[in-house]
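User: What would this chain look like folded?
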Amino acid sequence: MNFNIKSIVFDLGGVLIDWNPNYVYEKVFNGDQHKMNWFYENICTMDWNENQDAGYPLSKATEEKVEEFPEFEDIIRMYYGRWEEMLGDQIQGTVDILEKLILDKKHNIYALTNWSAETFPKALEKFEFLKWFEGIIVSGEEKTRKPFKKIYDITINRFNLEPSETLFIDDNLRNIKGAKKIGINTIHFSSPDKLKAELNNYL
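Assistant: Here's the prediction, encoded as structure tokens.
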């Protein structure tokens, strides 16, 4: 099958940036995986965090969660209070791929990320490569997030993209399915090496 890819859209967390709350909570729970997983599944859940990625204020979310689980107050406050410690390094293999695509100047390169508008400026300070993109859609600024159709429509319209000529790279299968629904080509990211191989199928 022949593709005429003109634009490539990268996810950030898990593809180009290593973000993991374990960097804080493994110390808090003294490496007890069972307790840590219980905390993620019952207190500071992924759904809860994603609500902030869609624009909900971090302070309000924290206070509501503390009110709901007062016995976990200190640990809950660490989630955003120590958020910068959860921000790991760039995923160098993918950054190398991104750099080559930028230097080749054959495609327009953008980013689409589920990220709180309140914490994203800290990522901009830390990672120089974020300045390479022609544009970045940050979910928290748009008050919606992947995998909802609205954020893909925003991306397509803002950057004047044609879905069939666009390639979207994300590590979350749910987000990949959301992009596919509106006709965007996709790569489900698992590692830089696999990404390099799969890009050859499209470019």
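The chain has two domains: 7-16+91-202, 20-87. If you want, I can go into more detail on any region.
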